[in-house]
Model the fold of this input.
Amino acid sequence: MTEPPFVPYRPERVPPDVGLRRGREFLGHMDRRRSVRSFSSAPVPHEAIELAVSAANTAPSGAHQQPWTFVAVSDPDVRHRIRLAAEVEERRFYRERDLPEWHEALAMLGTDEHKDYLDVVPWLVVVFAQKQTVLPDGRLRKNYYVSESVGLACGLFIAALHTMGLATLPHTPSPMGFLTTLLDRPPTERPYILFPVGYPSSDCRVPDLARKPLAEALVLRS
Ligand code: IYR
Done:
C-alpha cells in the first residue's frame, strides 16, 4: 500500500500561562451562552451563517467523512411551512403521546407545542446527518460515527453563533421526517437538529438553570 500524503502541522506554540488565560476567557464567554426561545426578527447577515457553518465544518469526523449538510432557510414561506409541520408533531408530543417521564423532565422549561420562534427568526438552519454520502460518480459510501461527528459539528456551530452575539436553540421536534420532504433532501440523510438563529429578543427570558458543578462533570484520576 502506498503511504497517504502527510503535510507538516505547526500550530502556534502557547505557553501554559497564556493558554490558561485564554482558556479562562473562553470559558467565561461560553458560560454566558444560553439556549433561547424568544428571538428578535432583526436581520442576520448571511455571512454570519456562512461563518458559523464554516466553523462547524472544521469539526473532526469519523474517517474525515464530514457527514453533515447544513441547510439554511431564510424564505418566510418555507419557514412558516416548517413551523406548521413542527407544531403538528409537537402537538402530538405534548397532548397525545403517553410519555409522562419525558413530559415531567421538561416541565421546568415551560415549553409547549407553540413554536412561534420558527416564524420570527431570520434564519432556520437544519442540520442533516448523512448515513451515506453520494460520491461524485454516484456510488454510495457508508459513513462511520455519523451521530458523533455531526454532534461535534453542531457544537462548534453553536459556539460560533454565540461569538457573533447570535442565539439559537437545538430544536428537535420528534419525529422530524417532515424536514426531509420540505427541504427536498435525499433519503441518505436524516434530519438531525433544527436551529432557529437570530438575536435574542430584547425581553428574552430563560429558565433559571444552573450548570452542574465541575466535580460532577470531571473525574480526575491519577
Ligand atoms: N421537542 C419538544 C420537546 C422538548 C424536548 C426536549 I429533550 C427538550 O430539551 C425541550 C423540548 C419542544 O421543542 O418543545
Q: What stands out?
A: Strands lie at 68-73, 123-130, 132-134, 140-142, 167-168, 189-198.
